[in-house]
Amino acid sequence: MSRCSPSTEIAKGIRVHSDFHHLISRRGFLIAAAGVAASAPMRPVRASATEERRIKVAPSQARLTGTDGPQTPVWAYDGTVPGPTLRLRQREPARIVVDNGLDEDTTVHWHGIRLPNAMDGVPGLTQKPIKPGESFVYEFTPPDAGTFWYHPHADSLVQLGRGLAGALIVEEAEPVAVDRDLLWLLQDWRLAKDGQIAAGFGNMMDAAMSGRVGNVVTINGTVPADQLVKAGERIRLRLANASLARIMALRFEGHRPVVVAIDGQPCDPHEPDSGRLVLAPAMRIDVMLDMQGDPGKRYAVIDDFYDGLAYTLTTLAYDEAPPLRAHPLDAPVGLPRNPLPAPDLAGAERQEIVLQGGMMGGGKLAGVGGMMGMGMPGMNGEAAWAINGTSMTGDGHAGMAPQFTLRRGTTCHLTMRNETAWWHPMHIHGFSMSVLSRNGSSVPHRQWQDTVLLAPKDTIECAFVADNPGDWMLHCHVADHQMAGLMTVFRVT
User: Fold this and answer.
1) Which residues of the chain are under the pLDDT cut of 50?
2) Of 451, 478, 439, 446, which is closest to residue 6 (Cα–Cα)?
3) Quick one: signal sequence residues (predicted)?
4) Nearest residue to 283 (alpha-carbon basis) of 299, 296, 272, 274
5) Position 199 in a domain
6) Which of 59, 197, 210, 486 is the most buried (most CB within 10 A)?
7) Using CA atoms, how far apart are residues 276 and 249, in angstroms rounded to an integer?
8) CA-CA distances (angstroms) from residue 464 to 20, 270, 351, 417, 432?
9) Domain span at residue 294?
10) What's the structural domain count of the chain?
């Protein structure tokens, strides 16, 4: 099986324990659910300076295995999984009130948005948690157009795993020339045989290995369905991975998707390596798809990230009508760039973070200078991972000491080195990073990302201008890994 960027052998280093094999067999691997962006759970909601938007976080129910399947208790924004799609306008202020109907604290992190630190949603670090029955007002003006999302940053593993996620789309000032704009928000669930969410959040094997990978995948919270398309149309497809741990590598049979944005930031349009779109938890990829298939034909969209566990995510089903146009739409596919400050590499301050820990071959925990204690890693809040020898567990709290401090306006040249045997999507709050190199080779296409996927033993160099003051999180977005220590903080003064 061929493999693509970020590594030519993308599934090496994925060590799957026996419980994972029990959950995910080749025969009964998963239920893959695909739906159109216009489905009810993805209804667009306008939030603007003139309209205050309220979102309630509360328990709800969803039929994750189909209309004939059982109701699954979930936690949801406004009663739907995923939550309502918020559509904002670039450079227009937004005001969103979040009401907490759970029996525990929550917050909302507006993932990928460059916003004021007080609006970032990290409990203790940037705001007081939203207590049960209380509310919090988030106000910010998104500087960048693109595909973003929102999710909790309190009890992250459980709250994300029970369904709390929603898409946030910031629209460009001028409409993009496409026939349709679709969103696929992907979520991964670990369900028991009765269709209920399986117990065991934060168990040792997940915490110290690949994280809580599930056995059911949904798109836009819907059951398996064909994606209906028309020959000759151009679709802007926004892909967002809201899974706890599942990495995906999507291949569109018979089609040539063109990547136009990563993590909401436009890049040089390009076809992905080997035709596969690698999407780790928290990442987003926008692609342009010219539908050049034959009327009446069907084409599979396959996820083949994990060796031996490929499956059909959904199917592009063409209607019988003649092509909408004889030739692809005569309009550029590139998107207008966002106003990101250009790093000054010549005068940059260099920082390095080293990812350590996790289970290695033979089930031993690789720590700082050897074993990290005799207790079970990742259990009861114990650390299974470290950054530069320090483990920060949980979701964030007051008084977290920064790993490094940057003067406002300084360019930071950040090297991230993965010394573990596992994959880590590293997410930076408050900034987008220019991705410079991977393992010594330049990264093409002028890519900016807020979540960068490191394969085992990868070294990635990035750069950003520290123009946003505050204490900011930097952590792995495999939720088990973050909760078990793969998290740090840096400060901009």
Assistant:
1) 1-50, 368-379
2) 439
3) none
4) 272
5) yes
6) 486
7) 6
8) 38, 23, 11, 17, 7
9) 181-318
10) 1
